[in-house]
Design goal:
This protein is mostly helical. It is 74% helix and 0% strand. It has two domains: 93 residues; 110 residues. Keywords: Cell membrane, Electron transport, Heme, Iron, Membrane, Metal-binding, Transmembrane, Transmembrane helix, Transport.
Length: 220
């Protein structure tokens, strides 16, 4: 399990703590809120606002004569309201990803993610024979790269479904994209759970204080 624990200290200067810029910290916590909100909308639509269940409920509770199709339309309308919120979360996620992308390639950024990934790989090659910390750091960075890739896929597939008519995407293709979008969502959920477990484990070991570092930026 140690391989999923993020390191608090700098690989090249183990006496120093990693620094997290304000933009990275802001992106991290906003991303957490948006993804959590997005997942909650999916959970709501698969439980409380499930069309099949609500259609039956509406028919049972209706005091007036209402057809099954009308009840289904009402249930669909309720579901669509939640999906509308989900779409807004998707827009926000896309904006946050663009913000992160711009910060990575910004001239004011000292290294950015890819620079950090390269540094982690160089540190791994330099220290691999002496310490497992370098391999650990490089592995964690690779996991983050996978997460960013999943975010790209989530954003692109989500936007493709939202603007399917404008993009000329057929209904069959849109359905396939929806399935892939959902698959990516589960992978991101797995990553988040693994990340949380890793952070909790790190807090109990050498990297105690790693959560506070992501809040206040890390102190020397």
């Amino acid at each position: 399990m140690a391989i999923i624990e993020p390191l608090r200290n700098d690989i090249d200067h183990l006496a120093k703590l990693k620094k997290h810029s304000k933009s990275v910290r802001l992106w991290h916590w906003l991303n957490l809120l948006v993804i959590t909100g997005s997942l909650l909308t999916v959970l709501l639509n698969s439980t409380l606002f499930d069309v099949k269940s609500n259609t039956k409920f509406i028919l049972q509770q209706s005091d007036t004569s209402i057809t099954a199709q009308q009840a289904k339309d009402i249930a669909h309308g309720m579901e669509d309201q939640i999906w509308s919120i989900h779409i807004y979360f998707g827009y926000t996620l896309a904006a946050l990803f663009l913000f992160r992308l711009l910060s990575v390639f910004s001239p004011s950024t000292r290294q950015g993610f890819f620079g950090n990934l390269k540094s982690a790989y160089q540190a791994y090659r330099k220290h691999s024979k002496e310490s497992h910390a370098a391999l650990h750091e490089f592995t964690v960075k690779c996991l983050y790269l996978i997460f960013y890739s999943l975010l790209v896929l989530m954003v692109l597939t989500g936007l493709s479904m939202t603007f399917d008519q404008e993009l000329g995407i057929s209904q069959n293709l849109s359905h396939s994209i929806k399935g892939f979008h959902g698959f990516c969502m589960y992978l991101i959920l797995i990553f988040i759970l693994v990340h949380i477990v890793g952070v909790l484990l790190a807090e109990r070991k050498e990297s105690k204080g790693i959560v506070s570092d992501m809040i206040n930026g890390g102190k020397t």
